[in-house]
């Protein structure tokens, strides 16, 4: 039995449907992420798990028990907010110990749990500091320690890394992964940042307009998106309109107007005549001069339309013969200045026959 079950949950605000018959199962000890754009329903769902809001229909069960009649303060759940919500007049130790004092834990137990929590987040030397004396990353760790000190069944994190700058965010991500692994508590994390979700999660639920589009491990979401929304929302992707002309056991044969034929991996349920999009990631696309990519089954001529130098990689946008634009990512791994193709250069792009995925619709 899953630790947390969301069963057919619906929530409306007037005519607006924030959640539309959502069902999810989250296992004990999982780092589970709700990912999607603003307004997709992820924060509404998190608020209902926490008990700050109630569903209009459906059930939320924790360890098999319906939480409907349990108020937020009685649920074995803690929420870490984006703002951290630290008390400015309390020290780090007092902020962390606050939930224990409110639940009237004995002083000796408070001291033991506080010491353990401070060590978990590496803030033992900051116990007597005040929030105004802390960096953003340290405030984040205080909020996490306060969330963990009561040993909740679930820790909910609502966009809790959004206030950090990019470098600090990466550091805290690593800390968060290690902390979750160490304490073994189920984390349910809400974010709109795809890279963050991919880096942190055991599984991700991608949401759009109140519905769950796909639930999967990060690598499967990235490599095998179920539809155009997931493919486009997770990372960068090339999408080429195509029609299935042959569905064989080992491959799909696709026709692309004005371009020719693409050989793609097989797809269950696909049939000749189906229309949709062929999706392939920029890092799977090779770029070279004429004659270099002829060994690949999929290779096409084009012209460099634009390029973006990003230090470790260069991203080339190549216009193909039918006017379609495709991105190719080239690592700048050679020492010294990378030998870049220039805008207007005639090039070839190509990719393996077992790369990419055909998506219906």
- Judged by helices, strands and strand pairing, the structural class is alpha+beta
Helix content: 10-25%
Q: Could you name the CATH class of the largest domain?
A: Alpha Beta
- Unreliable spans are none
Q: Strands across the major sheet, in which order?
A: 6-7-8-3-9-10
Biggest β-sheet strands, sense, barrel: 6 strands, mixed
Radius of gyration: 25 Å
Q: Would you identify the CATH architecture of the largest domain?
A: 3-Layer(aba) Sandwich
Strand content: 35-45%
The string of secondary-structure elements, in order, is EEEHEEEHHHEHEHEEHHEEEEEEEEEE
Helical region count?
Answer: 8
Query: Span between N and C termini?
Result: 35 Å
Q: How would you sum up the global shape? A: globular
Mean pLDDT score: 92
Return the CATH topology of the largest domain. Rossmann fold
| Count of DSSP strands | 20
- What is the number of independent domains? 2
Describe this structure in words.
The chain folds into two domains: 4-229, 3-Layer(aba) Sandwich (Rossmann fold), CATH 3.40.50.300; 236-353, OB fold (Dihydrolipoamide Acetyltransferase, E2P). 23% of the residues lie in helices and 35% in strands. The protein has helices spanning 42-50, 92-102, 107-120, 136-148, 166-183, 194-200, 218-223, 228-233; strands at 4-13, 16-26, 31-35, 57-62, 65-66, 77-80, 154-158, 186-191, 203-208, 211-216, 238-247, 252-256, 260-264, 275-280, 286-288, 298-309, 313-320, 325-331, 346-351, 357-360. The strands form four sheets. It has a six-stranded mixed sheet with strand order 6-7-8-3-9-10, sandwiched between helices. It has a five-stranded antiparallel sheet with strand order 13-12-11-14-20. Helix 2 crosses helix 3, helix 2 (92-102) runs parallel beside helix 4 and helix 4 runs parallel beside helix 5 (166-183). The radius of gyration is 25 Å and the shape is globular. The model has no long low-confidence stretch (mean pLDDT 92). The protein is α+β, with helices and mostly antiparallel strands.
């Amino acid at each position: 039995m899953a630790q947390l079950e969301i069963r057919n949950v619906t929530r409306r605000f007037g005519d607006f449907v924030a959640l539309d018959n959502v069902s999810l199962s989250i296992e004990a000890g999982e780092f589970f992420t709700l990912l999607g754009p603003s307004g997709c329903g992820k924060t509404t769902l998190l608020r209902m798990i926490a008990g700050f809001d109630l569903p209009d229909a459906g059930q939320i069960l924790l360890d098999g028990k319906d939480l409907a009649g349990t108020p937020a303060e009685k649920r074995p759940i803690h929420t870490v907010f984006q703002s951290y919500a630290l008390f400015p007049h309390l020290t780090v130790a007092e902020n962390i110990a606050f939930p224990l004092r409110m639940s009237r834990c004995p002083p000796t137990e408070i001291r033991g749990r506080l010491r353990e929590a401070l060590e978990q987040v590496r803030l033992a030397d900051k116990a007597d500091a005040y929030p105004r004396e802390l960096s953003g990353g340290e405030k984040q760790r205080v909020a996490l320690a306060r969330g963990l000190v009561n040993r909740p069944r679930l820790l909910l994190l609502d966009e809790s890394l959004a206030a950090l700058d990019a470098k600090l965010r990466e550091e805290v991500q690593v800390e968060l992964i290690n902390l979750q692994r160490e304490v073994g508590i189920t984390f349910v994390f809400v974010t709109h940042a795809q890279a963050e979700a991919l880096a942190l999660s055991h599984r991700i639920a991608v949401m759009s307009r109140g519905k769950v589009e796909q639930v999967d491990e990060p690598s499967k979401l990235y490599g095998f998106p179920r539809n155009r929304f997931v493919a486009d929302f997770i990372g960068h992707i090339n999408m080429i309109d195509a029609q299935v002309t042959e569905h064989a056991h080992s491959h799909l044969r696709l026709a692309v107007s004005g371009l020719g034929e693409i050989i793609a991996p097989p797809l269950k349920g696909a049939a000749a005549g189906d229309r949709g999009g062929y999706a392939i990631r920029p890092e799977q696309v090779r770029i070279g001069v004429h004659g270099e990519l002829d060994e690949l089954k999929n290779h096409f001529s084009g012209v460099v339309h634009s390029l973006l130098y990003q230090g470790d990689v260069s991203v080339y946008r190549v216009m193909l013969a039918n006017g379609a634009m495709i991105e190719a990512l080239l690592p700048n791994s050679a020492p010294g200045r990378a030998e870049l193709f220039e805008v207007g250069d005639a090039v070839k792009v190509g990719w393996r026959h077992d790369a990419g995925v055909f998506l219906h619709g």
